[in-house]
Amino acid sequence: MRINSKSIRFRLIAWYVLSLGVVHFLVAMGLYQTVSARLHHELDERLNTYATCLVDLLPRDRPSRLAEIGSERAALIALGPDLYVRVVDGTQQVIFESTRSPAAVADTLRSAFAMPPNLPLSLQVAGSGTWRMLRREVSEEGKLLYVGVVGVPLREVQQTLTQFQFVLIAIVPGVLILASFGAWLVLNRALRPLREMIRTARAIQAQELDLRLRVPETDDEMQGLAETFNEMVGRLHRSFAQMRQFITDASHELRSPLAVLRGEVELGLKARLDANRCQEILGLCAVEIARLSGLVETLLFLSNADAEKAALDFKPVNLTRVMDEMAEQTRILAEAKGVEVTLVNGHGIVMPADEMRVRQLLLNLVGNAVKFTPPGGRITLSCRSVDGQAEFVVRDTGIGIEPKHLPHVFDRFYRADRSDPGAGGGYGLGLSICRWIVEAHRGTIQVESVPGKGSAFTVRLPLADEKLSQTSGTLHLGSLG
After folding, report:
1. In Å, what is the CA distance from 389 to each residue of 236, 382, 385, 443, 463?
2. Where are the extended beta strands (E) located within 322-439?
3. Quick one: average pLDDT of 157-163?
4. Helix count (H) and strand count (E) of the chain?
5. Mean pLDDT calculated for residue range 263-268
6. To 10 degrees, the CA torsion angle through 230, 234, 239, 240?
7. How would you classify the pairing of strands 389-396 and 378-386?
8. End-to-end CA distance of the chain, in Å?
9. DSSP state for residue 422 in the 8-state scheme
10. Contacts of residue 414, Cβ cutoff 8 Å, sequence gap at least 6
11. How far apart are CA 326 and CA 356, in angstroms?
12. % pLDDT > 90, the chain
């Protein structure tokens, strides 16, 4: 298996093993130093004990007691065959010296008489390793009576430390190997969902956006990543579906006027027409071109809105005044159809908004109300302040909307099949633009409708507080989130 040094798993394992190795090395060094210090301390305690028994307890009365204690010293030394003892008096006359130590050891250790008293020191002896020495002096009234040197080899201590080193050398690499293997198993299991995500993500294409990642029930970052990725794919799926539907609907809308233009132009080219007929053809062409221009401008507006390039000029807007003016325009539009228009207007309602877009929103709503309300019907415009929001409602007594169409009335190019012959001529984009305007103002728009009885569109936009009423500025769609 090829090892990728840039993979997350390799870097995590490498860092884990390195940090664990450093920690184990420091711990091993600390243990070794502790054990070594402990063993040397115990050896020094033995030296102090030997020095006390063999030197400090020498009698102050040398002539009467030295012969008596000779056999006692020999018996004590016999307890430790590796023990070296040399005791001299103040005149450097040897009182006692162990005879069981090798001559080379005795010759080397005799030089220890120059060492400081009561301070254990290590001395290297050729052929016999390292010895631990302690010099002890016995004085009385400022007079030096005895000087003794006691020495023991460090062989046992060194053997114990060597064995301990082997144990540490065996344990630390073993622990690192086991830890590395365990880390590999844990990371392999932890990253398995990530590898599945990679495979699924590679399989997802524009035509296969219905694929989703398997969400592991681990309650960790992997589960959050999988859920977030699935949500993102879901949004992409909806976006691609809307884009395909948008292209299909736009193509369908453009095909009809282009077919009319082509037919009229071909007719004018094939036949010799009089001036009146040519004028009629040109008039029809102008109407279709105007329709195409309106559709293209609307599509461009929606495209800029989707790309967050449509800017909104937020200023304090007096909604009461705007509703009065929109009611007058609605009466002009409804007069030809004999539709009654009623305004129930609030007072002093001010909100931060783009006045041109708010007028466009209201004009689209009242335009639909006029279009789908039969003669003798009624349109009611109302405006009020509710829970810190400006609420305005456009209600009509028109043909209404079937329940199956209600969830789609704000979709682009969506047009319900209506029986009113005057319902044609639109692109199915007006309500889509209304929704964008409302959402850009951080508001909501809802529709209620009963077939045969009419519809009501309710819009709620945030009201201005005192500070917003006195300020103005330009906000882009991107900043409105």
Report:
1. 33, 14, 6, 9, 5
2. 340-344, 350-353, 378-386, 389-396
3. 86
4. 11, 13
5. 75
6. 90
7. antiparallel
8. 48
9. G
10. 405, 408, 428, 432
11. 12
12. 9
Q: Would you give the DSSP letter of residue 432?
A: H
Order across the sheet with 389-396: list the strands: 340-344, 378-386, 389-396, 454-462, 444-450
Q: Which two tokens stand for residue 172?
A: 């630390």
The answer to whether the beta carbons of residues 378 and 339 sit under 8 Å apart is yes
| Inter-CA distances, 473 with 25, 358, 470, Å | 65, 16, 11
* Gap between the Cα atoms of 285 and 260, Å rounded: 8
**Cα–Cα distance measured from residue 39 to residue 28, given in angstroms and rounded to the nearest whole number:** 16
Residue whose entry in the numeric block shows the structure tokens 């035509």: 207
3-state secondary structure of 473: strand
- CATH fold, domain 8-161, is Beta-Lactamase (3.30.450)
- What are the start-end ranges of the E strands in 128-261? 129-140, 143-153
Q: Contact 464/352 with Cβ under 8 angstroms? A: yes
97, 86 contact by CB (below 8 A): yes
In three-state form (DSSP H/G/I as H, E/B as E, the rest C), the secondary structure along 109-165 is HHHHHHCCCCCCEEEEECCCEEEEEEEEEEEECCEEEEEEEEEEECHHHHHHHHHHH
Return the CATH number of the domain spanning residue range 311-480.
3.30.565.10
Write the pLDDT tens digit of every residue in 91-122. 777 777 776 666 767 777 676 666 777 788 77
| DSSP 8-state assignment for residue 54 | I
The CATH number of 221-306 is which of 2.10.270.10, 1.10.287.130, 3.40.50.2300, 1.10.1200.120? 1.10.287.130
Q: What amino acid is encoded at 200 in this protein?
A: T
Radius of gyration of the chain (CA): 51
- 358 or 426, which is more confident? 358
